[in-house]
Amino acid sequence: MNPANPASSAKAYLRDFFKERRGQLAEDPARKEALDMEIQTRLLISPEYRASETVLVYLARPFEIATSMIIYAALANHKAVGLPVTLEDHRMVFRRITSLQELEPGRFGILEPTASCEEIVPDEKTLCVCPALCCDMQGRRLGFGGGYYDRYLADFPGVKAALCYSDSLIPLMEHDGFDVPMDVVHTDNFSRYMKA
């Protein structure tokens, strides 16, 4: 991956910069797999994972940090597992699955839980695992631009955790009142907990 640091903290610039970096990493699938496994392992040994009863997690696309190990572990640990469903009004909900057989292509062609899967109502023992192109040292997360997670997490009562490559953790990024900071950022080298 390109070790160069981004020249701006503007979201549009950072999104392009880190999308390009993800493309470079995709050219080395063995390295990506090793980094993704380390990040997932850090989450799975974390206190917030152990304390959770429900885990909300995205089903990773090829350019995102993998989550299959988290999904299988949470199911094996008898936790309630929810995957996101995007709605037409730019909202997102999570529906509970007991198997990856309960998925079908959704609005953007991404696999989502079927309509027969029950919607999860999060509580304080719910862990939400969020995708991130990059994060800053204050726990702010840059996603892919849809705003679905920020809307969902606005009143979220549980623990918010982002998965991020360590070379995609930057000092500061632009933010606004809609950005919801994470409680913890798990990377391939360390986990950064934000102060309450």
Output the number of helix runs.
Answer: 5
From the coordinates shown, what is the CATH architecture?
3-Layer(aba) Sandwich
Largest sheet: 7 strands, mixed
Helix content: 25-40%
CATH superfamily: NagB/RpiA/CoA transferase-like
How many structural domains?
Answer: 1
How many β strands by DSSP? Answer: 12
**Overall pLDDT, averaged?**
92
For the biggest β-sheet, the strand order reads 3-2-1-6-9-11-12
State the low-pLDDT regions, or none. none
Strand content: 15-25%
Rg: 16 Å
CATH topology: Rossmann fold
The run of helices and strands is HHHEHEEEEEEEHEEEE
Q: What's the N-to-C terminus distance? A: 33 Å
Question: Mind sketching the topology for me?
Answer:
Blueprint: H1 11-26, H2 29-44, H3 47-51, E1 54-57, H4 68-76, E2 80-86, E3 92-97, E4 103-105, E5 111-113, E6 126-130, E7 134-136, E8 141-142, H5 148-153, E9 159-163, E10 169-170, E11 184-186, E12 191-193
Would you write up a description of this structure?
It is a single chain. The chain has 196 residues and is an alpha/beta fold. The chain has one domain (11-189): Rossmann fold. Helices cover 27% and strands 23% of the residues. It has 5 helices and 12 strands. It has a 7-stranded mixed β-sheet with strand order 3-2-1-6-9-11-12. The chain has a 3-stranded mixed β-sheet with strand order 8-7-10. A hairpin with a 5-residue loop joins strand 2 (80-86) and strand 3. The radius of gyration is 16 Å and the shape is globular. 34% of the residues are buried.
Considering the chains and any ligands shown, give keywords for the structure.
196 residues; alpha/beta; Rossmann fold; globular
